[in-house]
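Notebook, bench 3.
Goal today: get a predicted structure for CCHC-type domain-containing protein from Dreissena polymorpha so we can plan the truncation constructs. The sequence was checked against the plasmid map this morning, with no discrepancies at the termini. Length recorded as 264 residues. Pasting the sequence as submitted so the record is complete.
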Amino acid sequence: MGTAGDILRRLGPKASVQKVIQKFESTFEAVDTKETILRKFHASQQLDSESIAGYTSRVDEIYTQAIKLGGIQMGDEDSLKSVVYQGLKKEMKQRAAYKFDIISDYDKFKIELRKIEQEMKTEKPEQKKCNAAVNIEERKQTDMEEVKSLLGKLNSRIDILEKERIQLKEELRQNAQQLTYQQYAGQHQPLRYNFNPGGKNNFNRGGGNNLNRGGGGRSDVSYRGQGRGNLRYQLRRPVAYRTFTPTCYRCNEKGHMQNECPKV
């Protein structure tokens, strides 16, 4: 979009006024519809840094556009005054409520609004009090943010300590299991068989007791039984008088045959 000077330069010095106006309208005129301009009109609000003169001029311009588009009838200043009043800043609106009720003329109502605006500018002590309240509120907000930040750091530190505690507990548990396994493995070493062709053949449990065969010597092996002590088990070859004892079929007693029964 070019500026107004660029448009005039392109039209040239011989362009008519009607042609210039037509170009300006096609380039800069608002393209709002009746519905959009009415929504904009009724939603008008005074900005924080906007004066009464600037605010009312802006609303008047929207009002004029709405009339051109057929959204508002010419001379409907009651609607214009109502929209201007409803869009005032809160404090200004409170002070202008009485003037809005008693003054029907729109231009006179604008004059009263400018008077109220001037009175508010001269009330500097009250303005300072408002600033002090704002500063106190900002300081409270800053203190609250610092407290939240400190609590966040404390929570993070607590989480780290909790993780370290769980990790240490797990390491202690694993070390205890490893120590128990080592003790168990030391007490339950497997048997090892040593074969000597010309001498004794030994079963050794960790270099301890032996099971010896051959050489005519005594053979034994260590046996871990109930409790914590060790029992010595001796290997013996079975003999006849232990493995076979005769039983008498007459008296059913052992130690003799029926033909030698003393009860006959």
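The radius of gyration is 57 Å. The first helix runs from residue 4 to 11.
Flagging this for group meeting.
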